[in-house]
């Protein structure tokens, strides 16, 4: 395994984005209460369809109808947990990929136990920041060289280990996003630190990851989801004054993305 992951090749990213645009996936989102509207708008701007069907019986039914499912435990409570388990089981039975966003796993016991329970239901992909991926992999970020939630490079070994034990493609995001299946990895550059000053960019990215996880080359597709968001993020940030003007500019940049834009690679090295 390479120590320094390769940059996601532009031709793979363009092909994956083209498939995404043709498929226009319907994404069932069981996400947190803070980011529902932003997440729906991100999916719509890109050309996918969101549906937030949250009641347990309905969620269990709908997970077989949607193309992919997102489970984000940001504002977890018992009813939502029941709906999440039911939906993940339906998705598995119907052969639909589902994605786990383990928001704030590590310090809080209830959600950490629940995320481990979800892990046993074999998500197709997992997307989190460095501390979340470290915690889900069973490591404590403190004292292991992870300085902050966005020190994704330090969390790459944990992401690889998590991918190997769960069978999921794991994306650990931050200044550079790393995407791994445990054997191969891609690095995705770009984005802007301003993206961390607006709530929901990570959560919305996880919904986009779900929309891409339907593709056969899941590693390249999940990396492309990360690239789509970082490219739109850096374009938006170039034209805004701060977090308030970022959100509309970001949605416009997602909407304006062309397949050929994915061919360019922003950095030679990282
Ligand atoms: N320092 C940074 N520089 C550039 N982009 C960043 C930086 N930190 C995060 N991002 C981008 O912001 C988005 C959200 O990632 P992240 O902040 O890791 O998730 P979360 O919000 O779940 O903590 C991703 O697209 C990521 O690439
Ligand atoms: C603020 C907050 N509180 C519970 S969930 C949530 C949103 C987290 O969003 P993100 O992980 O994308 O920053
Ligand atoms: Mg998050």
From TrEMBL:
Substrate binds at residues 52, 200. It catalyses: 5-(2-hydroxyethyl)-4-methylthiazole + ATP = 4-methyl-5-(2-phosphooxyethyl)-thiazole + ADP + H(+). Pfam families: HK. Pathway: Cofactor biosynthesis; thiamine diphosphate biosynthesis; 4-methyl-5-(2-phosphoethyl)-thiazole from 5-(2-hydroxyethyl)-4-methylthiazole: step 1/1. It is an enzyme of class 2 (transferase). Signal peptide: none annotated. Its EC number is 2.7.1.50. GO terms for biological process: thiamine diphosphate biosynthetic process; thiamine salvage. GO terms for molecular function: ATP binding; hydroxyethylthiazole kinase activity; magnesium ion binding. It comes from the Bacteria. CDD domains: THZ_kinase. Its cofactor is Mg(2+). The keyword Cell inner membrane does not apply. The keyword Cytoplasm does not apply. Keywords: ATP-binding, Kinase, Magnesium, Metal-binding, Nucleotide-binding, Thiamine biosynthesis, Transferase. ATP binds at residues 127, 173. NCBIfam families: PRK09355.1 (NF006830), thiM (TIGR00694). Belongs to the Thz kinase family. Catalyzes the phosphorylation of the hydroxyl group of 4-methyl-5-beta-hydroxyethylthiazole (THZ). This is Hydroxyethylthiazole kinase. It comes from Enterobacillus tribolii. The lineage of its organism: Bacteria, Pseudomonadati, Pseudomonadota, Gammaproteobacteria, Enterobacterales.
């Amino acid at each position: 395994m390479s120590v320094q992951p390769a940059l996601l090749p532009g031709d793979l990213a363009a092909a994956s984005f083209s498939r995404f645009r043709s498929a226009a996936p319907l994404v069932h989102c069981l996400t947190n209460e803070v980011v529902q509207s932003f997440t729906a708008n991100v999916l719509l701007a890109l050309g996918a369809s969101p549906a937030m069907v949250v009641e347990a019986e309905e969620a269990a039914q709908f997970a077989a109808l949607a193309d992919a499912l997102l489970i984000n435990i940001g504002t977890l409570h018992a009813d939502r947990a029941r709906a999440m388990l039911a939906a993940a089981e339906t998705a598995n039975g119907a052969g639909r990929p589902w994605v786990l966003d383990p928001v704030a796993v590590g310090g809080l016991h209830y959600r950490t136990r629940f995320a481990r329970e979800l892990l046993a239901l074999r998500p197709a992909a997992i997307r989190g920041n460095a501390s979340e991926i470290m915690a889900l992999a069973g490591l404590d970020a403190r004292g292991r060289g992870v300085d902050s939630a966005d020190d994704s490079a330090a969390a790459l070994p944990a992401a690889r280990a998590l991918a190997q034990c769960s069978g999921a493609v794991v994306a650990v995001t931050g200044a550079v996003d790393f995407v791994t299946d445990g054997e191969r990895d891609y690095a995705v550059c770009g984005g802007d630190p301003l993206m961390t000053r607006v709530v929901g960019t990570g959560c919305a990215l996880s919904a986009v990851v779900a929309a891409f996880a339907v593709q056969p080359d899941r590693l390249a597709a999940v990396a492309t989801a990360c690239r789509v968001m970082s490219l739109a993020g850096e374009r938006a940030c170039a034209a805004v004054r701060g977090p308030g003007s970022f959100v509309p500019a970001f949605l416009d940049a997602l909407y304006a993305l062309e397949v050929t834009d994915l061919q360019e690679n922003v950095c030679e090295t990282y």
